[in-house]
Amino acid sequence: MHWQTRVKIGILIVLVVAAIAYGFKPTPVYVDAAQAKHAKMSVIVEEEGKTRVIDRFVISAPVSGYARRVLLDVGDNVSRGQSLLQLEPLRSAVLDPRSRAEAQARVAATKDALSAAREKVKAASANADLAKTNLERIARLRKNNHVTQDQLDHAQAEQRSSEAELRSSKFAVEVARHEWEAAKTTLQYSAAQNTQAASEQVVINSPIDGSVLKVHRESEGVVSAGQALLEVGNPDTLEVEIDVLSIDAVRIKPGTTVILNRWGGEKTLEGVVRMVEPVGFTKISALGVEEQRVPVIVDIVSPIEQWKRLGDGYRVEAGFVLWEQENVLQIPSSALFHYKDDWAVFVIEDDRAQRRIVSIGQRNGLVAQIVDGLASEEIIVTHPDNDISDGTRLRIR
Fold it and tell me: Is 222 in the same domain as 78?
């Protein structure tokens, strides 16, 4: 065979072998990568909350009565001791035809009883005069011993008895007259006829300097004792109430720093946890899941000039800073995966995946603190999947 033909056949064989070798060569896996770096790291629990006035006073009716119309509106300033509203006595009832007839009959009966009492006074006065005259006559006869001492004593007793009956009958006249006046008031003070202004009023004053927060009842009308009428408070003394999950509440303690943002202002506000309430409650989330939540009360420590436009019941977003440290070696949490009983990551070295066991510290959902196993600026795979194993060829997207 000609040598040129042999050369061509040899070249063809080499090309075929190279093509077969290239076809069986492992294809690199495309991955996303990140670099381990030192930076500030914080562990923050974020929840929504709302503001509320610290000292809130509910003004209620001390007695049942007729409340005049409230002339104050929400937001009006009030001073300590200022009159907020007035309570008048309850209005008299309206008499139906039967009640009116009964009242008129009662007036007539008490009037006649007064006349009868006056006649009894006349009779008692006559008896008293007779007893007095009889006593004087017997007393003269006793001086001459024409009557016994027993007759004189009996005459004196009759005279005192008649005077007592006279005084009693006069008191009966006064009683009858008062009953007549009382019977007439039923007709005189009927709600359909009484046009006189109330002579007595209960004035309810403000207990503090502040503003009106809520008007429970604005129109005039009958109110019962203990019924809420107004709410007042000082809007310059605000606190924030935030409901957190119970599993987060156990990590929050008084004095924890709180970052308040997305409240409408340009600057982020700072707060401090004052109290974690010891009692939780059940709340249904937007997804229909039952959650155990705990109220946490936060004091705003930023200058009042920064949040003066905040009011009662305004929405804020709060971030509880549970842990914070400068210059922390950290990686994205998505780079971590479980390997046996440890945490591991894939480090990219010479375009190949190298599995590395690491020890982690704090985590905040986005990044994780690396305590041991990685060095700064090492490149790792951020979202490892089942196609990657130790030694797999990688190519960064």
Answer: yes
